[in-house]
Amino acid sequence: PHPSFPPVKLLHESLPDNSGPYLSVASFNLLAPCYVRPVDKRTGGIQPFAAFEWISDVDTPEVLDIDKRGPRLLAALRSCRADVLCIQELHLSRSVGSDNEE
Question: What's the pLDDT tens digit per position in 71-91?
Answer without folding.
Answer: 888 888 888 888 899 999 988
